[in-house]
Amino acid sequence: MRNATLLALTVLLTTSSFAQKNTVPTERWSNEKIWFSGLFRSEGVYGIRSMADGIHYTSLERGAKGNAVVKYAYATGAAVDTLAKSTVVYGGEEARIGGYQFSSDESQLLLSSDTESIYRHSFLAAFHVYSVGSPDAGVPLVKDGTKVRLATFSPSGDKVAFVQDNNLWVSNLNDNRGPVQLTTDGKWNHIINGASDWVYEEEFGKDRGFYWSPDGQYIAFYRFDESEVREFGMPMYGELYPEPYTFKYPKAGEINSEVSIQLVNVNTGRKSALSRVDGDNYIPRIMWMGEVNDLMVMRMNRHQNKMELIRFSISEDGGRQQPKEETLLIEEAPTHVPVQDNFTFLEGGSFLMTSMKDGFNHLYLVRPGKSEKQLTTGEWDITSVQGYDASRKVVYFTASVKGATQAHLAKVDLKGRMSLLDETSGTHGVSWSRTFDYAIHNHSDADAPPTYVLRNRKWDSIRVLRDNAELKETLSNYSVAPREFFTFTDDAGEELNCWMMKPTDFDPAKEYPVYVSIYGGPGVNTVNDSWGGTTFYWHNLLCQEGYIVVSCDPRGTPKRGREFEHSTYLQLGKLETEDFIDLAEHLSAKDFIDGERIGIQGWSYGGYMTLLAMTKGADHFAAGISVAPVSNWRFYDSIYTERFMRTPQENADGYDDNSPINHAEKLKGELLLVHGSADDNVHFQNAMEMVDALVAEGKDFDFFAYPNRNHGIYGGNTRLHLFTMMLEFVKDNL
Question: For residue 573, what are the CA distances in angstroms to 9, 532, 630?
Answer without folding.
Answer: 30, 25, 11
